[in-house]
Every structure is written in C-alpha cells, then in structure tokens.
Amino acid sequence: MRWLRRNLLGIVAILVLIYLFIPIAVVAILSFNKPSGKFNISWTQFSTDAWTNICGVPGVCSSFVTSIQIGIISTVVATALGTMIAFALVRYRFRGRSTTNLLIFLPMATPEVVMGSSLLALFLNLRFPLGQWTVIIAHIMFIISFVVVTVKARLQGLDPRLEEAARDLYADPKSTFRYVTLPLVAPGIAGAALLGFSLSFDDFIISYFNAGTLVTFPIFIWGAAQRGIPVQVNALATMVFVIALLIVLSSQLVSYRRRKKLMST
Amino acid sequence: MTGAIKQVEDLHLLNLTKKFGDVAAVDDLTLTIPAGSFFALLGASGCGKTTTLRMVAGLEEPTSGTINIGSKDITNLRAFQRPVNTVFQSYALFPHLDIFENVAFGLRRRGIKDVKTPVNQMLELVELGAMARRKPTQLSGGQQQRVAVARALINEPDVLLLDEPLGALDLKLRRQMQIELKRIQREVGTTFVHVTHDQEEAMTMADTVAIMNAGRIEQLGNPADIYELPKTVFVANFLGQSNLIHGTAQGRSGDDILVTAYGQTYVVPAARSSATTDSLIVGVRPEKMTVLDAPEGHRAPESHNKISGRVTDVSYAGVSTQYLVRTPWDQELTVFEQNVIVGDRCSVGDEVLLHWAPEHTFGLENLGG
Amino acid sequence: MVVAKRRSGTGYLLLFPGMTWLAIFFAIPFVTLFMTSLQEPVPGKMGKYQAGFQLSNYTNAMAEYWPQFLRSFIYAGIATLLALVIAYPLAYFIAMKGGKWRPLLLVLVIAPSFASFLLRTYAWRTILADEGPITSFFNALHLLPDDRILNTGIAVVAGLTYNFLPFMILPLYAALEKIDPRLIEASSDLYSSGVATFRKITWPLSLPGVVAGTLLTFIPAAGDYINAELLGSTKDRMIGNVIQTNFIEFRDYPTASALSFVLMAAILVMVFTYIRRAGTEDLL
Question: C169: pLDDT confidence band, cut at 50, 70 and 90?
C-alpha cells in the first residue's frame, strides 16, 4: 500500500504513455490482419499479405509517393525561408518587429479549417487551378512558422562570444558564418526540416481544401474511411512510424554515446 | 613560431571614449602601453576595463578617439583585420572543432597552408600535445584556458589581450597559470594587456599596472610604485588597504609638509604628496605601522609619526595579526603586524601607541566627502 | 547575452521572401475570405456567386449553424480540460522524476505523432467498438446514455483529447522543467505538505505552460472535424464539418466563408481575453 502511494505518480505517468500508444498498437496489429469484409476494424486472422503486397491496392502507393514529393519540396522551401526569417529576427535590426512577429505566430494559432478555407477562397477568386502546386503553396505557408520558432531558439542559444572569437581570429563575416555560425545552427535547421516534413506528410485538412483532384496519402485514407481502409495503408503507416521512430531514437543514441565518451575521458 | 623575440611597437589609446546611451563606459582615456610589456588593466566590475579591451580588439566601436599601434592607426580596421588577438574570459573555444582545429583557426583564415608544424609546436608550448584531437568539452578548465592562449598566440599578434582569463580557475591552478603566462610573455615578447579585478594577480604578473575607475585611469605605474605611493583616495583604498586621516597643511619644514589633524602634527614628505591645496589627507599603509603598548611609548623614534589609541579588535591571520585601533577622535585604524615574535600580541582594550616612519606617509588631495 | 544587432538593410532582405509568402498566402486569404463571405448569388445562375455586400450571409449562416458552433466550443473545452488533467501528471513526472530518462520519455511522447493522424483516430473505432471490452465495461456500469460510446459525443471528445494530448504535454513539461527543484525543497523545509507545495509553488510556476498548452489544444480542437466525422454521428457535427461540407460539397462559398470567418474571430476574441486574464494570474 505504501509502495503504491510513493510510486503513484510514476504509475499514472506510465499509464498515460500506454494510452498514447494504444492506437498505434492497434494500427500496427491490424496491418497484419486479413479482414473478412472491406472494413479493417476488428481482428479476423493473421496475414502478412498487406506487407508483401504493399502496393496492391491502386492509389495507395501513388498517394504515398505524392505525399513524399510534396513533403520534400515544401520542406526545402519552407526551411530556407524560415531560417532566413529566424536570422533576421535574432541578428538584425528592422522596423515593424511586432507586426512581423504577429504574422509569423498567427498561423500557429489558427485552426486548419480556417487556413485551408481562406486559401481556397483565394485560389477560387484568382481562378488558380487546384492541384499539386496549391497544396505545396499551402504547406510551405504553415510550415514556415514552425521553422522560424525552431531555428530562432537554436540561434538564440548560440554563444555570441564564439563569433567574436572568430572575428578576433581573422575570419571575415562570410568566413565567420561558414565556419562557426552555420555548423552550430545546423542541428536546429535539421530539426526544423524534420518537423516540417512530418507536418506536411501528415497534413489532411489544409491539403483537402486545396488539392482539387490530387490525392495525397492522408486524402486517400480519408476517402477510403467510408469505403473501408485497405490493410496496406496500415502497413505503410506502421512502416513510416517505425522508420521515424528509429531515426529519432538513433540520433538520441548517438548524442547519448557522445556524452558518455566525454564523461569518461 | 620563429623563436626570435617579436619586434612590436607601443600601443597608443588616444582620447578613447565609449558611450552607451548617455553613460560613458570609457571616458576620454589616453594611455600608452609600452611595447613588449606585460600590462595590467585593473579595476572593479563596471569600471570600463573590459570595454576598453574590446575596443582594442575591434569588437566594440569607440564613440570617439583613436587606437594606434606604433604609427599605424587601427581605429577603423575591423576585428579580423587587426594584428590583435584575444583570450576570452569564457575561453570561447569552438565546440564543434577539436583542439587542433581550434588552434589552427586563425592560421587557416589567414590562408596559411601548412598548419601542422606551427600548431603542434604551439600545443607543445602549452603542454597539450596529447589533446590535439579532443573536443573542448572533454578538457578541464585549466586545459581549455591554455588552448585559448595557444589559439591566440599562434598568430604572433602585436598585442595579446587577456580578458580576466584566470577568473574561472581555482586558486592553485590560477597561481600556476600566472607564472606560466609571465614566462610565455617573456619568451615571446608580444605586448600582453591583461584585464583583471584581482589586484594580487595584476601586481604579481604585470610590469605596469593601470588602475581604472568609472571609465578613466586613476593611476599608472609599476606595481611597487603605485602601491607605495597612491595618488588618489580611490587607489589608496582599492589597492591594498590604507589608513586615511583628514587634516590641514600648516607649513613646510625643509622637504616636508607639516599637517595637523585632530590636534596632532604629522610629517609628510612633499615629494609624496599629490595634494594641491591645504586640505590634505595623511595616508599610511597598515603594514608600515608598529604597535607599542602605551607604557612603552617612549621607545618610538623621535622622527616618527605617532598616534595613540585603544585596541578594539585582534584578528590572527597566521602570517600576521590584524589590529583595529580606535583613535581619540573615534576613527578606526587598521594595523598589520607580522607575527615575528610568537605570542607577542596585544589584547582588546589595550592602550597602544602606533608609529611609522615619515617616508612611508603619503599625502592625498581631499576632494570633499 | 545580448548581441548588438546590425543596422544594415540585410535584415529586410532576409525577411522579404518568407514574410511575402506569409503575407500573400496567409494574410491576404483572410481578406478574400471576408470578401467571399459577402458575395451574393448571380441572378439566374444556380451555384454561382459574384462580389457583393450581402451581410445577410452572416446572419443566415449563424442562424442555421449556431448549434454546431456551440458544440465545437463545448467539445473543445471539455477535451482541453481532460487533456490538462491527463497530461499534467506525465509532464510532472518527466520533468521532476525523469532524470536521465528524460530524452527517451520525450521521444515516447512525440512518437505517436509519427503515425498518421487519421489512422490513429480511426483506430479508436476498433478500441471503442460496440462489442469491444471498453464499451462493454462502461455498459455494465450503466454509465452510457446511448448504450454505446462510438457515434456519440463521448467518442468525439475522447478522440479530441487523445489527438491533442502531446500539444498539452510538451508546453507543460517545458514550464515544469524550468522550476528550480530547490524551490520545492525550500517549501517542504518550511513545513509545507505535498499538496500545499503543489498548490502554492508548483502550480503557479507552471501556469505559463498551462496557458500555452490549453491554447495549443483548444484552438485546433475547436476547428477540428476529423474526430467528429470518424467517431461521431450526424448529431455530433462540429463547425469544421459544416465549413468543409459547405465548401467542398455544397459549394456554398459565401456561407462557408462567413462561418470560417466567425470561427476565426471567435477564437481570436477568446484567446485574447484568456491571455489577458492569464497575464493577471487570474486563471481557471
């Protein structure tokens, strides 16, 4: 009884973590399911069909690839634009700072429904054809803010003395940036890019409003939800989850190992 | 590193001013730092010494004034164009580069191709050859500090600036590094400008010390000179301790000024007084005074300045005993007596006579207050 | 450490591309949204609209859809509160007791976001299925008004709570992690019990995180329609569903735009009043 009281917090914490993962487990388990009907909701029997025949259902893989393409393009552009803004905010003086900040942070406080629908209103009024490009434009728009916040945090944590030391040691502004600033900000930029890509890949609402006839992976899933989601979708999603988890865990492992090596020397 | 003593020129700061808003952190500073000397800029936090250093480095733009090395005006040169290098207080070693690359940084930026030899030589000089491939976070504070020095020195600057580089080290290590830095300076011959708030450090390491207060230089000279003969109340109190007695000059007696204070007369050599008016402060360092029990008072030499008083505190500090003595006019004087004779100490409440030789007295301008 | 900022025009140059993008594709759309919301039907042509100033679009839209608005804010509000209650212990545990496991625990918190949002929501249909263990359990206790969870408001709120939980956990963690543990030690040194320490020290100091977390949860939840669509019935439609339906299916752009605009305005008003009250330490 005493033990329960002392460890109550830990127990609750672990329960919450389990709660977070239950749906993931369901998705993964159902990827090994062989549903009797069209709907993959309850367990019928074990089968690896979905995995071995992962592109078996038309539209699954093409929408997956579309999402990846859109993700890459949007991430590259948004990361570039957002990084530039972050540098401007931290390192340079300019007028209209509060307006700038407002415009950057407002997207993060706006419901996707509003952002998606207002963009659609814009495209409709301009008679701009809906499709891949409108989706990319939309994605870049809402990713920029996240990139700015991430890179800005990293940049602000940078010891300004390091750049002073570089100047003291004969590095002109370009060299200082190249040999000191950039290498030290790079992890922040990489993190922002990863965040941006995952936001783009999994985006549904904004994409749905602006995709026209284009089908991204989430749009495919949404359309399939009424008719029955193919098991392959579960397989692909599980695969993406595992890969992403491995990437993040391995980078954690690398920095953990590096820190241990530092302590022991 | 050629091994030969570097030919350097004097560093001139002329009317250097730095204002932040309305506040002058450095106020019309004019200073010449002799070539090849170990120069200390000493002062409390906020006195402007670090700002001065940064202006010489090119990391801070002066509001007005010029900086010259010899006849060359470097005021308008950017930091990376100046033949000046800095050892930062926090070392500022590049965390993403190993020690070798940190030290090689300046050479590489200047386009020098063969860095291996000079870097290894420099690492040997600071005894860190084995650490070449480690990262800064893997080194101790003392080791990092040596890397910072190596990284700066390898570029053979005309002036090496040190911004309180020993602040983060523990006492023993600090002493070691003080000796190290002195040795290196003598070997290399570069002008070292060392900024610190630690007076002991400044006095043991430097050939010349400048005391800074509120953006200005209060006094400049070699350590012994400015210690034995402070020219302002600030210096008298900042450097070591002083007993200061307010008085009035009454007249001369040969080369000496006679000063009366609280009914007593003191002899102050004219050459040791920086007062320009009759309102004069008589000063003497605590270690220059001798304590005699009141009954023994007649043993004090005739020519000495004398004060009688009562002991109010006795602190035994191993090397010396510190007394606080209250004068008839209710001023508390500090006296340090070296514990030469074991056991011979006064007690609280004793009536004593303090005396000291006139040549240890100094006179200061009484600027009110 | 404050770095002197450079005065050159480079700042503007760096800002220009990104801010222009945001201006064109975020700010201006609001203008077009507003303009579209005032459009009037083209006479004689069904489904076509032209520029106008039909304010009645707003009144009509609100008259018809105010229940969905209300429902959205209520569902989002309940979900936010639930998320706060569920997230706080976990955030507290990681911040105060996590120690060297912190990085790993944080990875576990964001990891679920790597799997498709839609699929995770859809998975609740399996978990909360009518014959499933959870629904049966609650049924046995006679707690369910409709004898089921799925296709009711309960499921929608449950889905909203789940989906936005990480957005509550992370800001809470960030704020709790900043609290100096010595403050808590000092509190118990000064005779405070565990509960009192929490009430007087921990909770007040974690408020910035609570404010951030509740905002980051409530705002997307209020506009969400995926949970309502996948887990609720037609009686549980939220304003997001309505906006989507009007835009995509009915193509009633004026009505849809009006609704969208009102949603945004309502959220902004709520956020500003909330922040102002939170700023005066007068919260919840």
Answer: very high
Q: Is the confidence at residue C283, as pLDDT, over 50?
A: no
Domains held by chain A: number:
1
B73 membership: H or E segment, kind and range? strand B72-73
For B98-164, give the DSSP string. Answer: -HHHHHHHHHHHTT-S--HHHHHHHHHHTT-GGGTTS-GGGS-HHHHHHHHHHHHHTT--SEEEEES
Q: Is residue A4 part of a domain?
A: no
**Minimum-distance CB partner of C14 among A88, A110, A141:** A88
Inspect the interface and report whether the beta carbons of A164 and B105 lie closer than 8 Å. Answer: no
pTM recorded for the entire structure: 0.81
- Say if A255 falls within a structural domain: no
| Three-state DSSP class for residue C276 | helix
Which domain range does residue A204 map to?
58-229
Interface of C with A in 155-194 (CB under 8 A): 162, 165-166
Q: State whether residue A105 sits within 8 Å of chain C by CB.
A: no
- Mean pLDDT (chain B) is 91
Residue that the structure tokens 């000079």 belong to: B118
**Cβ pair B155:A170 closer than 8 A:** yes
Q: In this predicted structure, what is the pLDDT of residue B4?
A: 54
Q: How many residues does chain B have?
A: 369
- Range in A96-100, B185-189, C131-135, C274-278 the model is least confident about: C274-278
Q: Which of C7, C15, C34 to mutate to test the interface with A (most CBs of A within 10 A)?
A: C15
pLDDT tier for residue C151 given thresholds of 50, 70 and 90? confident
pLDDT digits (tens, 9 = 90+) for A135-177: 999 999 999 999 999 999 899 888 999 999 999 999 999 999 9
Domain of A223, CATH number, reads: 1.10.3720.10
Which residue type sits at C187? S
CB contact under 8 A, A122 and C32: yes
Nearest-Cα residue of chain C relative to residue A157: C1
Structural domains in chain C, CATH included, are 65-279 (1.10.3720.10)
Q: Are strands B38-43 and B208-213 parallel, antiparallel or unpaired?
A: parallel
Please, are residues C169 and C88 in contact by the beta-carbon 8 Å criterion?
no
Q: Is residue A48, in this structure, part of any structural domain at all?
A: no
> A184 and chain B: CB distance < 8 Å anywhere?
yes
- For the segment B285-343, what is each residue's pLDDT rounded down to a tens digit? 999 999 998 888 888 899 999 999 999 999 998 889 999 999 999 999 999 998 888 77
Q: Does residue B358 carry a pLDDT above 90?
A: yes
Name A68's Cβ contacts closer than 8 Å, sequence gap at least 6: A201
Q: What are the chain A neighbours of C119 within 8 Å (beta carbons)?
A: 23, 27, 221, 229, 233-234, 237
The CA distance from A16 to the nearest CA of chain B, in Å, is: 37
CA distance, residue B356 to nearest chain A CA (Å) = 50
Nearest one of C159, C164, C177, C156 to C83, comparing CA atoms = C164
C235 burial class (0-12, 13-18, 19+ CB within 10 angstroms)?
exposed
Does residue C225 belong to the interface with chain A, where contact is any CB pair within 8 Å?
yes
The answer on pLDDT for C1 being more than 60 is no
Q: Tell me what pLDDT residue C51 has.
A: 81
Neighboring chain A residues of C35 at a CB cutoff of 8 Å: 121, 125
Confidence bin at A94 (pLDDT 50/70/90): confident
User: Would the ipTM clear 0.90, i.e. be above it?
Assistant: no
Phi, psi of B179 (to 5 degrees): -65, -40
Kindly list the residues from chain B whose CB atom is less than 8 angstroms away from the CB atom of residue A166. 94, 105, 109
Determine, yes or no, domain membership for A72. Answer: yes
* Homologous superfamily of B241-365: Nucleic acid-binding proteins (2.40.50.140)
Cβ pair A167:B58 closer than 8 A = yes
The CATH homologous superfamily of the domain defined by B11-228 = P-loop containing nucleotide triphosphate hydrolases (3.40.50.300)
Domain parsing of chain B, residue ranges: 11-228, 241-365
Q: Which residue has the higher pLDDT, C2 or C144?
A: C144
Task: Residue C104: list chain A partners with CB under 8 A.
Answer: 252
